[in-house]
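Support reply, case 0932

Customer input (verbatim):
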Amino acid sequence: MGRFEQLITVTETHCDALHHVNNVVYVQWLQDIAAAHWNSKVPADINASVVWMLRKWEIEYRAQAFPGDVLRIDTWTGAHSAVTWDRHFTITRVNDNQTILSATSVWILIDQPTGRPKRIDEAILNVLA
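Our regenerated output:
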């Protein structure tokens, strides 16, 4: 599946009382790019039958971002088990290549009809590998 990236320009609405991007906003961006990456690759029949549920986040905040900063958000998949898949992220400020954060998450594949974990089969492996 490779790396997937998006650019975002920080606005005042992304910021907290300290005038830098709020941590909750970063988490939303990470979740949004994970979904965009999946949706850019998955066939409609698979997308209708499964959903990914977040199990774990590990986020390391390295620098702050401020209004006007253009950020590149990158994501890619890593190791997987029978029902989980690791996903990695970086957010980098474009103008100075400063890493703002790095993160790793673990997602569980859920069968839509039953709401239960689903084994990652060949069809899913072919989408994300």
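We compared this against your earlier run and they match. Two observations from our side: Residues 4-128 form a domain with the Thiol Ester Dehydrase; Chain A fold (CATH 3.10.129.10). The chain has three helices and five strands. Please reopen the case if you see a mismatch on your end.
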